[in-house]
Design a protein that fits this description.
116 residues; mainly alpha
Length: 116
């Protein structure tokens, strides 16, 4: 026991998966209570705010095109796996939904060839 504080925690295998350690947030993830603050911080770092501000009025007016929707999905993809993101949202544990999310082949099947 060194008495040194824990500064970082890894949530995956890559270098991008290191984040500041917050004991209350980690406890929330373990107890399936979510971690909305970390999700918001990651979204602020990785998503393009200008693109989101450009698309928001279209979405609110009901004029969102398929190209706009695709650009938003690409922004969301920057956050990492859907399973990891859903782990940060408070929810009831559902093992079947987790298994369905682990298949990522479906997520690329619908894209037009120009977007790949």
């Amino acid at each position: 026991m060194t008495g040194a504080p824990i500064l970082f925690a890894s949530t995956g295998e890559g270098l991008d998966d290191f984040e500041r350690f917050h004991a209350d947030r980690m406890a929330g993830r373990i107890l399936d209570m979510g971690d909305i603050l970390t999700l918001i911080e990651q979204a602020e770092k990785k998503m393009d705010a200008e693109e989101a501000e450009k698309v928001a009025p279209k979405a609110m007016a009901g004029q969102l095109t398929l190209a706009d929707f695709l650009s938003q999905l690409q922004q969301i993809k920057k956050l990492g796996s859907m399973k990891k993101m859903l782990g940060m949202i408070p929810r009831r544990t559902d093992a079947r939904a987790d298994r369905e999310l682990s298949t990522s082949a479906r997520s690329t099947a619908w894209r037009p060839s120009s977007a790949r």
